[in-house]
Amino acid sequence: MRSSVPAVLLAVSLLSGLTATDLAHAEDPGDHGTVPSKKDVDNARRAVADKATDVAGVRRAMAAAQARLETASIAAEQAAEAYNGARWRAERARAEARAARRVQRSATADLEKQRQAYAGSLVSGYSSGQGLSAVAGLVQPGGIDEVQRRSSTVASAQSALDAKFQRYQASKTLADVAEDQASAAEKKAVAAERTARSKREAARQAANAAAAQARSVAAERTRLLRQLAHLQHISVALATRRQDALEEQRQEKAEAAAAAAAQAAAQKAAHEAAQKSGQKSGQKSAQQSGQQAGQQHHTTAPDHDAGDAASSSGQAPAAPPADDAGAPAPTPPASAPAPSGGVGAAIAFARQQIGEPYVWGAAGPDSWDCSGLTMRAWEAGGIALPHYSVAQYEESTPISPADLRPGDLLFWGTSNSPSSIHHVALYVGDGQMIEAPRTGVPVREISMYAWEAPNFYARP
Asked: Whole-prediction pTM value?
């Protein structure tokens, strides 16, 4: 009978994953000659439950570590795009300053030209002002006529001189304004460049923090996987494969949920648009019916029905609003046509960069950030875009997710305002995108719902 207790507990341990230490605690040392008591069974069950709790706790810890990494990565991405935005604004401000200086130099040159012309006229006037005096005009033959002629000439010269002075004054005013504008533009450029340097430092710190978090999470995951393997009495390699499979399943579920949410939002938007269109069409039809009724009142042979009236006026009756069943899905079907022209070149360029590293602020040739990749891809496609995700959206044509075509841009923001955009990717069809995601993750082609559904869409 002595061996029955260890045998039972051994069977329980094999099913539950208890260690030898657990067995020692579970066995009652004071009673070796009887079958397991209720207390023994309860203790064994509690030990199994504790192990299960430990496994769940380890997995929660891994999920929490991954969440910290995601948070740090998003913060780094936001900081990187904030730097791109500050750099873009600084470049624009510097270009405006250069243009203002060109205007100022032109205005200064014109002022000098007008100054010389006015000064020359003054000298010429003084030189030609010596002539017959009024007395000489009285005593010399024909003198009076000569005085009158010269007086008229002097008056004309004075009028011309006044006009040149006015032009000089106008040029001086323009030169002063141009100087003020150039100085203001220069100050704006200097301030923008100072802000860009500050944002660059913030982006560098955020990227370093994200990289440190990635290293910390990787080390913590390794430790937690060892702990998980110990708790489950399996090898670390097997624990790793199991955990990877679980995380992949969760990712697939998250992608499916994001896709479903995006489709529901698209259907709702389409339904609301159809309702508005139906209301407008109904109002227009009512107005047309009223006009037709007025026309019938003034005719001797009224039309047979409203449909004939609409046909005779060349206006078609309003179409009924579409229902939810006809609402488009957020992504095109799998049989979407192959991209061509500039779109094909843009996608081909992006695919060539797959596997290359993410580096914040980079736009090639061997490293990329999100907006640097989409900028160069569409540059290959023949369209110039700025190296800044917000500006890329603003300089493109906004579209709905139902209108997505290969080559369109996908944007992620923290709110419903485009100013909150901090990530951009290139849509390549069939629900897939190419992106430069974050530090430590290279350029990749992946589901557009791998993280969460985009909240802005645009066509360059």
From this structure: 0.64
Torsions phi, psi for 358 (to 5 deg):
-85, 130
Q: 49: closest CA among 57, 37, 59?
A: 57
**Residue type at position 222:** T
pLDDT of 111-145, one tens digit each?
888 777 777 776 666 655 544 444 444 455 555 55
Residue 83: partners with Cβ closer than 8 Å, 6 or more residues away:
196, 199, 200, 202, 203, 360, 361
Instruction: Report the alpha-carbon distance of residue 152 to residue 370 in Å, rounded.
Output: 76
Domain locations along the chain: 78-203, 339-460
List the beta bridge partners of residue 398: 458
Residues forming the active site: 370, 423, 435
Q: In CATH, what class is 339-460? A: alpha beta
pLDDT at residue 320, as a whole number: 37
| Distant-in-sequence, close-in-space partners of 288: CB < 8 Å, separation ≥ 6 | 310, 313, 315
Tell me the residue type at 194. R
User: Phi/psi class of residue 454: alpha, beta or left (left: φ > 0; alpha: ψ in -120 to 50)?
Assistant: beta
List the Cα angle 195/198/201 in 5-degree steps. 150
Omega before 36 within 30 of 0, i.e. cis: no
Q: What is the pLDDT of residues 267-311, one digit of tens each?
A: 777 777 777 776 666 665 656 655 555 455 444 444 434 333 333
